[in-house]
UniProtKB/TrEMBL annotation:
The gene is Plekhj1. SMART domains: PH (SM00233). It comes from the Eukaryota. CDD domains: PH_PLEKHJ1. Residues 19-108 form the PH domain. This is Pleckstrin homology domain-containing family J member 1. It comes from Elachura formosa. PROSITE patterns: PH_DOMAIN. One of its GO terms (biological process) is receptor recycling. GO terms for cellular component: cytosol; early endosome; recycling endosome; trans-Golgi network.
Amino acid sequence: MRYNERELLSLARQPAEKAAEIRMSVPKKGSVLKKRLVKLVVNFLFYFRTDEAEPIGALLLEHCKITKEEENVFSISFIEEPERKYCFECATEEQCLEWVEALRRASYEFLRRSLIFYRNEIQKMTGKDPLEQYGISEEARFQLGAHRQ
């Protein structure tokens, strides 16, 4: 996927849904845990050196697996590249669980499934499609029957 660097930097400066200084390692041979400022904005996880304003990297949280590894450690790996694994060490297990939950809820696919679920629930309760009032038809992007899981 291509990104416009200027737009990505602008996104990195937006208010975060979650941010903290935690220890992180990247999927390079011999990589060690280093303290990084980690910032979740929409479905991107930006990471910064603790003394710098510009991110040194960003992870698009799509088609990835977020796994709680140990008491206070979680990882992010990508479905197409399972060997590309980022590890994060939190100060506490509670902080780790909060990060895992926030990251799992950040993906477009999670939001899409939630929209479809709530649209179906409202339609069951009211007998009407809640999106019709906005001119969004059955053929629209978020069809009721699409990709049920």
